[in-house]
Amino acid sequence: MQPATEATVMGDFSDVGFKSHGVTSTFRKRDGKFFVETDGPDGRLAEFEIAYTFGADPLQQYLVSFPRGRYQALSIAWDTRPEAVGGQRWFHLYPDETIDHRDPLHWTKLRQNWNLMCAECHSTALEKGFDGELDGYDTKWSEIDVACEACHGPGSRHFAWAETEEGNRPAQNGLTVDLSDDDGGSWVMDMETGLSKRSPVRSSRMEIETCARCHARRSPQQADYRHGQVLLETHRPAFLTEPLYFADGQISEEVYVYGSFLQSRMYQLGVTCKDCHDPHALAVRGDGNSVCAACHLPEKFDSTSHHHHPPGSAGTMCVECHMPARTYMVVDPRRDHSFRVPRPDLSLEIGVPNACNGCHRDRDPAWAREAVVRWYGEDVPPQYGEALAAARRAAPSAGRGLERLAGDAELPAIVRATALSMMAAFPSRGAGTAVAEARRDPDPLVRLGAVESTERLAPEERHQFVVPLLRDPVRAVRTEAARLLASVPRELFTPQQTAALEEGITEFRDAQLRNADWPESHLNLGNLHLAQGERLQARRAFETAIRVDPDFAGAYVNLADLFRVEGMDDEGEALLRQALERLPDEPALHHALGLTLVRQRRTQEALPELARAAALQPGEPRYSYVHGVALQSTGDLQGAAAVFTVAIERHPYDRDLLLALAHVHRELENWSTAVDYARRLTEVDTENPEARRFLAELEAHLER
């Protein structure tokens, strides 16, 4: 990030135009300043001065100053790559989407706000300075870009050390956080395996935790960042969930390295970021395969017998097979850091991408699998992708697969944490055992996953599992425990537990207020108030979320549901219709409005809203289920059956859809079809006695 000057601006501002999304934007220079004429917050063309440049390679964005201390990032960026490879041009960051001033992704909206979305990781010692009353910022930094203190902490003692005469300097260099190896460790090549091993085994993860503050998909939880802490003390990283990651843990959306690196065998063995990257030169430590050769014997791995590709071809490069790249922001390829073995067999089984077909786009995964088997044999190592994919589909075996992952101490912590968090949808005795064990795990990520797994348990069970974690040494675990216990009756708590809960709730509130410029924070606060029976405070929080971001659908939905609880469906309907004027393609709003109309016995008016929600988001089975039930309630059994049938093809293991199909076909007197769906339900929901009884009733009728 730099002030926009002749020396820093890389884009063409020579009065050139660029047309995208029906708008022609013009970039010009005047009196040593830089301007863009483009569509503003009202959709009209207006001229805006460029305040700062943002980035340099492979693209440069531009920040515009808005009232109340806000800086907005233009969605039109300059491609800084050489012209020979397609660069030196203006381009839109969302070329395949229709973005106008009403869209939440428009450059003038919250999600393109520098203060909120970018600043923490691109400046040093940043103070965001958001003022909720003024709805504005007084953002400050010690240095405009990423400098020494961003990683090493306050540098006054190091500065004093540097100014001391060399012969009189103390051994310690005065850095608040010294990220150099101080354990005397080194990597020694094992000539038999061709792999290096570190001796002694690395005991500190401080370097990776420091890098992860910005190189992770995470949400800030605490303003008072202190260098050297574990990441979860101040930030909460994302698990391997959709749509961020594919089922096998490969990167899908932009997740910034940390979550993929934690999955790697290299991380488990003690490799850190600076083993491959020079953090001060901003470059990898060598060219081509030489980076990998530091720990992987070239005679064994950089050879045709290993990679089976012609010399000089892309397939001889380690990163092409073990670090496949995905491109973000149109021109910016980012490599997956899980360092995985290419698995075209998983592409065939669960539909994930693989490195082979990433290059050989004219071939299919079956061809790639045959090649891999021919070169390396049939044996493949176990992979957690199958179990996570089954859980995403809600397959019958999913619960047992998640239990296996959660209990396998050899697996990466982020995989186990993800499995635990997904167990909330698959409660069982085995899941309870896995959660009880995970509460004592040394890795805070696993403990956080254990807390999340209790989301759907009855209050008494949640109390039993979660209370011990109210005193967890890591903030993210404590605050999640407090959130989930807030709705548990207080009479279940001892005085000591109550005190711990109140402290945790305070920390949770503080974490949300840390992000008071983000609407989800106020949604979380509103839900917390509801859990504690504080409806008025909940309403105020939801209304604040809408004020912070009028394009945030979740706040409208929750506020309308609060109106339902208070018997004010008329106000809820008006609110949802107001929201749909801003967000006409938001499925959650159509669904909520449909439910509101059904409660008012206006089912015929509700049907188009419910149908619209299901059409806009076919990946959400609940929308199709409710639409079908509404049709069924009007007597349109054929229409309901058609909706359920289409939905079950997408979600073959959904229990509600299977039960609904069995019921509707019973009403249609399609007895054999009803039996088929009821039988499928018992196969999916094996521990449900009601499903077995229903199947027995249908089978008995069929036999008559």
Provide an overview of this structure.
The chain contains 34 helices and 19 strands. The protein has 704 residues and is of the alpha+beta class. The radius of gyration is 28 Å and the shape is globular. The mean pLDDT is 95.
> What is the number of beta strands?
19
Give the overall shape, derived from the CA principal axes.
Answer: globular
Q: What structural class should be given to the helix and strand makeup?
A: alpha+beta
The low-confidence runs, each spanning 5 or more residues with pLDDT under 50, are none
Beta-strand content: 5-15%
Helix content estimate: 40-55%
> Rg from C-alpha positions?
28 Å
Distance between the termini: 78 Å
Mean pLDDT: 95
What attributes does this structure have?
single chain, 704 residues, nine-stranded antiparallel beta sheet, two-stranded antiparallel ribbon, 19 strands, 12% strand, globular
In short, what is this structure?
By secondary structure, the chain is of the alpha+beta class. The chain has 34 helices and 19 strands.
